[in-house]
Every structure is written in structure tokens, then in C-alpha cells.
Amino acid sequence: MSELQKINKAKQLLVEGDDADCFFSALLKNLNINDIQIQNYGGNDELKGFLKQFRIAPGFLDKVECIGIIRDAEKNPKAAFQSISGFLKTANLPVPKKPSEITDTQPRVSVYILPDAKTKGMIETICISSVKEDPAMECVNTYIKCLKDKLNAPPKNLEKARLQAFLASRKKVPRKLGLAAKQNVWPWDSPVFENVKNFLNSL
Questions:
Q1: Across the chain, which distance is largest between two alpha carbons, in Å?
Q2: What is the CB neighbour count within 10 angstroms for residue 27?
Q3: pLDDT class for 73, splitting at 50, 70, 90?
């Protein structure tokens, strides 16, 4: 489980892992949102313990007015939301009725499931979708097809492999999704980011 940062802002955004931490830091900067503090809770299975610590952390009762939680849908967005709902209940925190809905409680709580709360996927999915018109994607897709055709055991997560292949096409090659976000590799004006932007603005 990642280390809980000292609470210093009323709006807290809990994200899944280092890449998401970097990604959302860059996106908040692009949106000129300065009143949200990011907390990295680590992996999905670590959120339960993180919320329990977060709930009793110094400054929580005095400062926290709103909590946003973001995680990947993976194979099942409904199951991902149900998992977070269960963790919130265990930590005695308000539970929204559906993704992106914000509770009328103290603190307010809202949950966003990447990529769009309706389909399977992850943060890589939304990033790759944002660059689908980039000329390099034709090469990336050809490469991925070649891997699937030629290898007995192609990469287990083709979405992550596709993203890494795309990053390798950049003039200054960022090694990770989050670093790419900080280098403005992802086109923030792409429509695929609108829903998550709306979520952040609603907190």
C-alpha cells in the first residue's frame, strides 16, 4: 500500500498507482485545477486498507470536504464500482449510487471507473484512444498484429503493449504513461478525456 500523504486540501483525489498519479497531476495542471490533492492508494486490492487509514488520518475530519476515487474497470466496470462501494462501506464512508454521481453528504464522495464507467479497459485504453488518429498508430497496429500472428504467447495485455509501442514512436521516448502525460504526449483536447475532465471539475 502506498504511503498516505499529509492531508492539506479539502478535495482529495484517490488514484490507482504511480502512472495514474502522474497522469492526473498533469491533467489537473492542464485544467488549471489547483484545489485538489492527489493520494496514490497503490493497487486495487490495497484500496480497502488505504481508505481505513485515510478515514482516521490527521486532518481528515477538519479538512476533507470531497473525495474522488478513480480506478480501472479492467474486465468488468460494474464489478469495479461494486468493489469500491464495498471498501467505502467498510471504511464507514458515504457510497454513491452509481459512477460519477456525487453524494450529498459530508464529505461528498464520487467514483470514476476508467475508461468511461461503461466498458472494460483501463487508463491505457483512454490514452490510446486519444491518439488513434496519430500516424504512428498504423505502425503500432501492424506491430501488434504481427505479435499476435507470430508468437505462440503474445503479450497478455495487448493494450499495455500497444501503448508502449506508441510511446516508442515519440522523438523523446517516455518510458511510462504517466511520464508521457507530463510531457504532454496525450492530446488533452481529445473528446475521449471529456468525461474524466467533467468528473474532476465536479469535485
A1: 58
A2: 17
A3: very high
CB 128 within 8 A of CB 159: yes
Structural contact between residues 140 and 166, judged by C-beta atoms closer than 8 angstroms: yes
Q: Which CATH class is domain 11-121+188-202?
A: alpha beta
What are φ and ψ of residue 174, in 5° steps?
-80, 140
Sheet with 36-40: list strands edge to edge: 36-40, 11-15, 66-72, 108-114
DSSP bridge partners of 109: 67
The answer to pTM > 0.90 is yes
HSE at residue 2, side-chain half, CA atoms within 13 A, is: 20
Q: How far apart are CA 49 and CA 40, in angstroms?
A: 13
Taking only the tens place, the pLDDT of each residue in 14-29 is: 999 999 999 999 999 9
C-alpha cell at 117: 464507467
Contact 131, 186 (CB under 8 A): yes
Q: So where are the chain's domains? A: 11-121+188-202, 123-182
